[in-house]
Write a structure and sequence with these properties.
The complex is a heterodimer of chains A (440) and B (240). Chain A is α+β, with helices and mostly antiparallel strands and 440 residues long. Chain A has three domains: 195 residues; 144 residues; 60 residues, no CATH class. In chain A, strands 1, 2, 3, 4, 5, 6, 7, 8, 9, 10, 11 and 12 form a twelve-stranded mixed beta sheet that branches. In chain A, a hairpin with a 2-residue loop joins strand 10 and strand 11. In chain A, helix 1 packs antiparallel against helix 4 and helix 2 packs antiparallel against helix 3. The radius of gyration of chain A is 30 Å and the shape is extended. Chain A starts with a helix and ends with a strand. Chain B folds into two domains: 55 residues, PGBD-like superfamily/PGBD (Muramoyl-pentapeptide Carboxypeptidase, domain 1, Orthogonal Bundle), CATH 1.10.101.10; 115 residues, Arc Repressor Mutant, subunit A. Chain B has a three-stranded antiparallel beta sheet with strand order 1-3-2, with helices on one face. In chain B, strand 2 and strand 3 form a beta hairpin. With 240 residues, chain B is mainly α. Classes of the chains: A alpha+beta (440), B mainly alpha (240).
């Protein structure tokens, strides 16, 4: 009896061992396979990055000696494109982003700046001396970047570098991370190699736009008690059941946070009130709506009435959308029949109760001011002639729109149709330049 | 003595079973993933795709929200009846083929995300869904405000030259988000995350420009502590 049991047990164990062994081996092979695949993706990103940076270097160097406008456009657009790709490749490397801050900024701005110059050159305007100087500086930084990358490329080529290790180390403390070659090399690039001019131009990564926005509100500082009162007043005393202190913000925008419990079943409202001047900056709530009882038109009216009641006069609806039983409306300020898009306020309405469950006035509170609107140099008729004949114009008016660099431009706005699609075309009211086309 | 023997036999059998089940499991899971059916109650990228197609062809007049509800169900049935398919209101292999949709093996849906810089550019529904997945993975259990804040940080990074210029680029930057590293981003996002993502895309930003956040109980990097904290929501500290 006993020996048989012993045989049975050891036999079973033996089979189990074999199966586990085979299984473990398979897992091991699979692991190697996955490691290789991720490593290959990292390598691809890295080699592409090196390739793009060296192409950029070449193109920029040619820029230094070219005098032909057509050539310039081709080279600038090439740098724009390659810098964009390089930035995207850089973002795929398994390095802590702190090590890449400056390199990434450099590539983003280089791409953005060359885009701006391409467009400018396309309009027939030659590059200014200052712009050529900027390009020269960018070129010098690019040479340094390319050289540092070559050091890395050598060790990648020799196979002494494992991206997997770097990735794993990236999760540890910063002190340890700085040990590996890649991070060290990138830190070196960050610290010494990249120096570039302050680029101020018409584009989203222009230096002027990267400064944080400031609220344009006058008045003295308020304490939390006052802020709470303002928040309750804003939502409506009869709707508020309970108020409590919420998230307070510091930094360039200082605000008090107030959490409000409401009695209309709309869930908590998170209200943010500026410390200076006591203005409501935003109201956020999830807005779970079970049954919709209010139609879209009615919601639109409620949003407009709400704004008027809160002292935001002359606001006009510019856009609306609805999702999951809530509607969000964009309002813009109007002055002398000119619609001013930078002064934007958003209002979210519950289609269940018709109550206001969201509000966002950040744009309005930073951009709004007394504007001195100048007479446009072009008449409406003159501007209209500049619109493409394909557009079947349905409405026209004057508008102030922000350009890519954050400046405001006075335009004629033409809404119209081409086939089934709706477009808005903006013609600069002074120069006649077609500033923008939107499809909606 | 007898009891000891029995214990031995049982433990050996158990070990054997566990090993076997582990091995079998890895194969079964692979098989399961091959048969994807989209049905009532599901949410996600594939539902978006189905709704979009149905709306395009006039079967569906509801919102394209990625939620498979009654309206989607009815529309699918109408589509199936018209196309000579089995009318069951679920989108299986054949219905999907008739719609020209590839159900694939993954439940996640990307969609095209236009590179949108500095708040400009068109943002499709694919962006909402991807952002919602990131929010769900990163901020489950946080208050709604904290979810909107996490989504806003991702969008602030897209607009920042120090980071990649697309939503997908920011989210999938290696090591940037733990939920991406450990795969939690692949969970199906709940309604709350979808709403939070949409609010953030609509311009709500409770952080007023933060580009970092961390959980002080878990943060391992000493570097992150040096960033100026702007606000605290739930467990997360938001910083620039």
């Amino acid at each position: 009896m006993r020996p048989r049991l012993g045989w049975f047990v050891s036999g079973l164990l033996f089979v189990a061992l074999i199966i586990t062994g085979v299984w473990g081996y398979n897992q091991h092979m699979q692991n190697i396979d996955y490691n290789n695949r991720t490593n290959n993706l990292y390598e691809k990103s890295f080699y592409e990055l090196v390739g793009h940076v060296s192409n950029i270097e070449t193109e920029l160097s040619k820029m230094m000696v070219s005098s032909d406008q057509g050539q310039n456009i081709r080279m600038l657009s090439d740098v724009w494109r390659q810098a964009e790709f390089a930035g995207s490749n850089l973002g795929q490397l398994p390095l802590r982003h702190m090590a890449l801050d400056k390199t990434s900024t450099f590539l983003s701005q280089l791409s953005d700046y060359c885009r701006y110059l391409t467009i400018k050159a396309g309009e027939g305007k030659p590059l200014t001396i200052e712009e050529m100087e900027n390009l020269k500086e960018l070129y010098n930084s690019c040479i340094n970047l390319a050289n540092e990358l070559k050091v890395l490329e050598d060790s990648v080529n020799k196979g002494t570098l494992s991206w997997q290790d770097i990735r794993d180390k990236g999760n540890e403390k910063l002190e340890d991370v700085s040990q590996d070659l890649v991070t060290r090399q990138f830190t070196k690039i960050e610290e010494t190699s990249i120096e570039y001019p302050t680029l101020i131009y018409d584009g989203p990564f222009s230096e002027t736009l990267l400064k944080p926005k400031k609220l344009n509100i006058q008045g003295s500082n308020i304490d939390y008690r006052e802020a709470e009162k303002i928040a309750i007043e804003f939502i409506g005393k009869d709707r508020v059941e309970k108020a409590g202190k919420g998230a307070e913000t510091q930094g360039t925008i200082e605000s008090w946070g107030i959490n409000l419990e409401t009695n209309d079943g709309e869930g908590p409202l998170y209200v943010s009130v500026s410390k200076k001047g006591g203005k409501v900056i935003s109201v956020i709530s999830e807005g779970i709506v079970q049954n919709t009882q209010i139609d879209y038109k009615e919601a639109e009216k409620r949003a407009k009435d709400f704004l008027e009641e809160k002292g935001y006069k002359d606001m006009e609806i510019t856009y609306g959308q609805h999702h999951d039983g809530t509607a969000v409306f964009n309002f813009a300020f109007t002055q002398d029949d000119v619609i001013i898009y930078p002064d934007l306020i958003k209002v979210k309405v519950s289609l269940g109760t018709g109550n206001i469950i969201g509000f966002e006035a950040m744009n309005y509170l930073t951009a709004h001011r007394d504007r001195d609107l100048k007479e446009p140099k072009l008449s409406l008729e003159e501007a209209k002639k500049l619109v493409n004949n394909n557009l079947d114009i349905t409405s026209e008016r004057l508008a102030i729109i922000p350009n890519r660099g954050g400046d405001e431009i006075l335009c004629y706005e033409f809404k119209g149709k081409f086939g089934e699609d709706n477009f808005i075309v903006y013609i600069n009211a002074d120069t006649g330049k077609e500033e923008n086309i939107l499809k909606y | 003595m007898k009891a000891k023997q029995r214990l031995l036999v049982i433990s050996v059998l158990l070990t054997f079973l566990i090993c076997m089940s582990l091995i079998v499991q890895s194969y079964i899971f692979k098989k399961d993933a091959e048969e994807v059916v989209v049905y009532w109650g599901m949410t996600g990228g594939k539902v978006y795709e189905i709704q979009q197609k149905l709306k395009q062809w006039g079967y569906y007049d509801g919102p394209i929200d990625g939620i498979y509800g009654a309206k989607t169900f009815d529309a699918v049935k109408k589509f199936q009846a018209k196309n000579g398919l089995a009318v069951d209101g679920t989108v299986g292999k054949q219905t999907a083929a008739a719609m020209g949709i590839n159900l694939g093996t993954a439940s996640g849906g990307g969609g095209v995300s236009a590179p949108s810089r500095g708040g400009g550019g068109a943002r499709g529904d694919g962006d909402v869904y991807l952002l919602a997945r990131a929010v769900h993975g990163e901020a489950r259990g946080e208050p709604y405000l904290g979810k909107v804040a996490v989504a806003a940080v991702i969008l602030n990074r897209v607009a920042d030259p120090r980071f990649p210029n697309t939503i997908a680029g920011v989210i999938y930057q290696p090591g940037a988000f733990t939920a991406v590293s450990d795969g939690q981003i692949n969970l199906t996002p709940d309604e709350e995350s979808l709403r939070a993502a949409r609010d953030a895309l609509n311009g709500w930003d409770p952080t007023y420009g933060a580009i970092y956040y961390y959980n002080p109980a878990k943060a391992t990097s000493s570097w992150i502590w040096s960033r100026p904290v702007h606000l605290v929501i739930g467990k997360h500290h938001f910083a620039t």
